[in-house]
Amino acid sequence: MRFSVTVLSIFALCLWAGVSLLWFLSYENSFLRLLSTRLFGANGQMGAPVLLNLDSLSKKVQQEITDSFDKYGYNSYVSDLIGFHRSLPNPCPSSCKENEKSLPKTSVIVTFHDESLSVLMRTINSLLNNTSQELLEEIILVDDASAEVRIEKHLDDYLVKTKNIKIIRSKERNGLSRSRMIGLKYASAEVVTFADSNCEFPAGWLEPLLKEIKTNENVIVSPVLDIIDPYTFEYKITKHVFVGGFNWNLKFKWLAIPPRRDETAPVTTPVLPGGVFSISRSFLLKIGGFDEGLSYIGGEIFDISFRGWMCGATIKIVPCSHVGYLFPTKISQKLLPKEEDLLKNLQRIAKAWMDDYVGLFYERTGARHIKPPDVSKETEIRRKLSCNSFEWYLENVYRDFHVPKDTVFAGRLRNFDFAVCLGSQIDAYKHFHPVNIDENCERIEENYWLFTNDGKIRQDDFCLERNDDEVHLKLCDDGKFQLWTYNETTREIRLQGDNDICLGVFLNTETNTRNIGIQNCNNRYFGKAWTFEMF
Q1: Where is the Ricin B lectin domain (predicted)?
Q2: Residues 96, 320 contacting (CB under 8 angstroms)
Q3: Which whole-number Å values give the CA distances from 485 to 462, 469, 490, 533, in the listed order?
């Protein structure tokens, strides 16, 4: 008896030593690191950040981190340290009311392609752990031709233990829209929820979405997207609700909304953010589902937003529902669609839904050279359902969006003397934006300007404004420092009401750089002549 106890003690000691060795080796091997974190799982709990001292890490690990940003757009090394499970904070406002009973069930469809295993597993496990089993009909995983073998093997092992998970694998790359349609074919619940594979779901995320659909079958609902930091994986709760919008080049942007009496009330959004949303299965099929003519990724949110709004839906963001979303620093070059493919997707959407306003899209993108797509299916859906026009959408949904109907000049604004262009990079979260010299002049997004009848030089909602001896972009208003005149003979841009003030480019002799600012119109310096050129 004493001998068997001794043997058991030695075995337990060896087991402890083996696990400790795994923990130690995990810092050099991602698979072992994942195994050890599944056993210990202490990092990142309650959404806390995982902070690394990079100088203390080996060169091998540092290179692994660098490679992970190139591959995924986030630090998969830190993600692996967190493991497959973690607890999350409660992000919902305290004023949110208790959820209703007798809500419809949902099928959650998660599409993925070569996602980091730990990120994908936290998406799945947070769904399983933090979703009411009474409301979760099933999780449908659509593997869009992932090449990583360990994802396939691990999911197969996992499915043996879990009853309400289905996995559909595609041998060929379908892209996001077609993958979602594949998942939809297998969904059995009356409500379907689509989610990207880089999410984390806190407790209580689902009920507020289902409540809206129970009230109105023709509503498409999105949670507030909290931010999962791509460097530390900190779960950052979004305090203020933003809605989705776009520019005429069909680039998504966040829009601030004014304070409301009830901050927990759902708010309509012109564009669905797209990372997570729920919709009635029958209504989605009624409006034609997702456009399967879209390739890979890019533009899907505009397809479902225009299709939804114009064909009878209301699209809302629900502040009492929060989901964490991992926003990559950049999309992996491996996953990033070719610029031409993305432009084809956007052109397809513009052609199908934007009616006479499609010309504004072409002006902002230079996509006229691309062969027009066949959108006869979407045209027939619009006819059959008597969908509204894009003009209706602008007048009733995206009412504050600037429609350039009063334009005198449009295109790039090139300085005639220095052969450079006026450029900018607009951040929707800021009220002021610097302008800059752009020697390339071919980036339409940064170099496209409108000169309007009322004397404004603008990019979308922002206007060029004098600020002492400098100029910057500010939200357009009625201020006198945003009003300019253009003389086609002298090519000078002057401030209205002060003919001595000209927009110019000047050489800073100390730094040997060129800057944009205010010049006296009467001096003899070069840099005051400008031309508008079409792209």
Answers
A1: 410-523
A2: yes
A3: 17, 18, 12, 17
Q: Is 428 exposed, middle or buried (0-12, 13-18, 19+ CB in 10 A)?
A: middle
pLDDT mean over 75-87: 95
Tell me how far apart the alpha carbons of residues 518 and 380 are, in angstroms, rounded to a whole number.
54
- Give the CA angle between residues 147, 151, 152 to the nearest 5°: 80
- Residue 495, strand partner residues: 484, 498
Q: Which parts of 94-239 fold into alpha helices (H)?
A: 117-130, 149-161, 176-186, 207-215
469: left (phi over 0), alpha (psi -120 to 50) or beta: alpha
Question: Strands (DSSP E) along 130-218, which ranges?
Answer: 136-144, 165-170, 191-196, 199-200
Write down the pLDDT at residue 167: 94
Among 241, 254, 259, 253, CA closest to 319: 241
With a cut of 90, say whether residue 348 has pLDDT above it. Answer: yes
The three-state secondary structure class of 186 is helix
CB count in 10 Å sphere of residue 187: 21
CA angle, corner 273, sides to 270 and 276, nearest 5? 130
Nearest-5° Cα angle at 502, 500 to 508: 115
Q: Give the confidence band of 372 by pLDDT, cuts at 50, 70, 90.
A: confident
Domains of the chain: 407-533 (2.80.10.50)
Give whole-number Cα distances, 173 to 112, 136, 148, in Å.
11, 28, 14
CB 273 within 8 A of CB 222: yes
User: Which amino acid is it at 463?
Assistant: C
- Find where tokens 């309509």 sit: 268
The answer to whether 471 and 462 have CB atoms below 8 angstroms apart is no
pLDDT band at 8 (very low <50, low <70, confident <90, very high): very low
Distance CA 514, CA 528 (A): 13
Give the amino acid at 65: I
User: Helix 300-310 vs helix 376-385: angle between axes, to the nearest 10 degrees?
Assistant: 20
Could you give the CA distance from residue 29 to residue 73 in angstroms, rounded to a whole number? 20
Q: What letters, b where the CB count within 10 A reaches 16 and e where it falls short, cover 316-340?
A: bbbbbbbbbbbeeeeebeeeebeee
How far is residue 323's CA from residue 276's CA, in Å, rounded to a whole number?
Answer: 8
Round to whole Å and give the CA distance between 278 and 299.
Answer: 18
Look at the alpha carbons of 57, 61, 62, 68 in this order and tell me if their dihedral is positive or negative.
negative
For 390-449, write each residue's pLDDT tens digit: 999 999 999 999 999 888 998 899 998 888 999 987 665 566 788 988 888 888 878 899
The alpha-helical segments, DSSP class H, found in 397-525 are 444-447
Q: Decide: helix, strand or coil at residue 410.
A: strand
Q: In the prediction, which pLDDT does 38 show? A: 47
- Look up residue 79 and give its amino acid: S
Percentages (nearest 5) of helix, strand, coil residues in the chain: 35, 25, 40
CA angle 511/503/428 to nearest 5° reads 85
